[in-house]
Amino acid sequence: MNEAPAVFRVERLELSFVPKPWAFAAEKRAEIDAYFAALQRQKPKIWNGRVLLLHHQLVSDGVFKGDFLETDFASFVAWRHWGFPAAGVRDCFGAGAIVSADGAVLLGVMGAHTANAGCIYFPCGTPDPSDIVGGKVDFERSVQRELEEESGLAAADFAADPGWTTVVDGALIAQIKLMRSAERAEVLRARMLAHLARETQPELADIRIVRGPADFDKAMPRFVTTFLTHHFGGG
Predict the structure, then answer these.
(1) Top CATH class, 6-232
(2) Mean pLDDT, 10 residues at a time, the chain of 235 residues
């Protein structure tokens, strides 16, 4: 992923579940299983659920169209760990960018027990079969679920901007929805921290407030800093 990420707006997403075998998962099965077994020894809370990966995409007239296949989390996380080798898929997911009334963006710090421990980013997650509704993959649903699970805040607490900001960084495609709050950043952070304190094992370890590039952190993935640079620059 040496090329600079691309950032653009789309009016809507048209995402479908079009199942097909993922050759990478079959061909690398032994290596995947060995990698995931070692990962589970380090992080026993990680489980091998089912996830959706993008295998075909097209952008036309402001619409991002895509088809997804289903695979196991172990295959996905191994592929990601090995640097996203060419495998006919992309890691495409929805994310919610929480924007406070005073213009800050709030990000979560992933907990030590998670696969992405220490990373700082928006409420988001790899889509899974629960996001399939009538043969369509619903990223609005995915973002709302992740927002509530990670932050304790509901979609009704926000005014969502129309459309999506798409960040393409090699094999990664983030579809980011701006979620605007009527509350200031410190109030939102306090509400989110209170939610984490109530959880037995919260997914997040902390909440960061970002007001501009000076607040960027090396633990933020490139798609996050790319979006934030675009956002704070008025893009």
Answers:
(1) alpha beta
(2) 88 98 98 97 92 98 98 98 97 97 96 87 93 97 92 92 97 97 97 94 93 96 96 85
Host H or E run for residue 72: strand 63-72
Say if residues 50 and 76 touch (Cβ distance below 8 Å).
Answer: no
Give me the residue spans of the domains in the chain.
6-232
Q: Which of 220, 164, 223 is nearest to 4 (CA)?
A: 223
Report helix, strand and coil shares of the chain as percent, to nearest 5.
Answer: 30, 35, 35
Helices assigned H by DSSP within the chain = 23-27, 29-42, 73-81, 139-151, 185-198, 222-232
The answer to whether the CB of 110 falls within 8 A of the CB of 117 is: yes
Q: Are 189 and 209 in contact (CB under 8 A)?
A: yes
- Please give the pLDDT value at position 235: 66
